């Protein structure tokens, strides 16, 4: 297993350590239920009306760490299955739904499936060549770029670390066209003209020292885009 293939596995165990240490998740009151049978049994995290809601960790046959809604995984999350495989990506109503990555072993060799899931079924890799191009990706552990067909050209960029939104303190951000607005947790570029270049640079601290993160991309097709960069 090479260094790159280890990243999602390391992310999972880092998050698991945070929960078990009590420094990231809070033990909920008894009676907070998880409705997905494979991960029900033991739950730590946020709760609403007796159901898992918000960020949490659920342990059963499988282990899930991520976002919940009404007792089911929904949003971003990582699931470690009892067969040793790991899925990192998006969920809806307890099922894999959206962009994701599944890692598993075949004959002791690491195998990866990336693409899109719908209602827990893999639907393949969407053809995004006409929408955007990734120019440079360094030390970005996971990214998502989604486009919706709208007349208004708008791109919003957000950052996440250990499942918390933030803006890197040393962030360097440049773009070729449009104008920028900011709020505490997102950057937005309005009225860009395609093709539009975007360059992102920031530093993260790890146990092995500082890492210089770069993410450079080009938007090829007009529309509304949301970009999410995740490091853990």
Describe the 3D structure.
With 232 residues, the protein is mainly β. It folds into two domains: 3-124, no CATH class; 132-231, no CATH class. The chain has one helix at 3-21; strands at residues 42-48, 51-59, 63-69, 72-80, 86-92, 95-106, 109-118, 121-124, 132-138, 142-148, 154-161, 164-166, 172-175, 179-182, 186-190, 196-206, 209-219, 224-231. A hairpin with a 2-residue loop joins β11 and β12 (164-166). It is globular.
Number of helices: 1
Q: What does the main sheet amount to?
A: 8 strands, antiparallel
Multimerization state: single chain
Mean of pLDDT? 85
Low-confidence stretches: 1-9, 21-29
Give the proportion of residues in helices.
under 10%
In whole angstroms, the N-to-C terminal distance is 20 Å
* Portion in beta strands: over 45%
* Number of beta-strand segments: 18
Whole-angstrom Rg: 18 Å
Question: Topology, pairings included?
Answer:
Layout: H1 3-21, E1 42-48, E2 51-59, E3 63-69, E4 72-80, E5 86-92, E6 95-106, E7 109-118, E8 121-124, E9 132-138, E10 142-148, E11 154-161, E12 164-166, E13 172-175, E14 179-182, E15 186-190, E16 196-206, E17 209-219, E18 224-231
Parallel strand pairs: 11-18
Antiparallel strand pairs: 1-2, 2-3, 3-4, 4-5, 5-6, 6-7, 7-8, 9-17, 10-18, 11-12, 11-15, 13-16, 14-15, 16-17
Short description:
8% of the residues lie in helices and 57% in strands. With 232 residues, it is mostly beta strands. The model is unreliable at 1-9 and 21-29 (pLDDT under 50).
Spell out the key features of this protein.
232 residues, mainly beta, 6-stranded mixed sheet, 1 helix, globular, disordered N terminus
